[in-house]
TrEMBL record:
One of its GO terms (biological process) is DNA integration. Belongs to the site-specific recombinase resolvase family. The active site is at S9. SUPFAM superfamilies: Homeodomain-like, Resolvase-like. CDD domains: HTH_Hin_like (cd00569), SR_ResInv (cd03768). This is Recombinase family protein. SMART domains: Resolvase. The keyword Lipid metabolism does not apply. GO terms for molecular function: DNA binding; DNA strand exchange activity.
Amino acid sequence: MRVGYARVSTAGQLLDRQFVALTSAGCIRVFADKKSGRGTEREELWKALDYVRPGDILVVASLDRLGRSLQDLIAIVAGLRRRGIGFTSLHEALDTTTPGGRLVFHVFAALAEFIRELIVEGTREGLEAARARGQRLGRPPALTPEQVKYARDLLSHPGNTVSSIARLLGVSRSTIYKYVPELVESRFSLSEATAGADLGW
């Protein structure tokens, strides 16, 4: 049994052409989504994948109607094959029920893995080169050295509160505590000593 799947990116686009192509290809039922392929909420696709049974063939008008990416496409087709379900793309004339179609998808899978390894290797080499140049990796610091010095200067004046300095620098109080811990601690110590003197300790 041939089961069709169609998709357009927006509600304003029409599915008519895909429906005609799929029904002409012998599909007895067609599932259709009107959503971007980048979304994960392709309800009709998941319904189609749940509907097909071993021996059936899932048919699409073109490959870009099924997968969000090459990796996504390969994962879906591989899942169908494990369940004994064929896959056909009309525009590309691909049919995984034939030796030629299976070969094409083996090539696609190998290419996707090759691209993934290139990306991983390129990222690793880029990080190593950045470390060799002495670049700091990861999230940039919340305060620059100049801002830390400015915060220290402001905290040396008892009239300035941690909250007011944090607002001035556009950071949270915890950031001030993190970058200037020694002055904050000394201020607490001074406050406790002053409070003790007032109480006659």
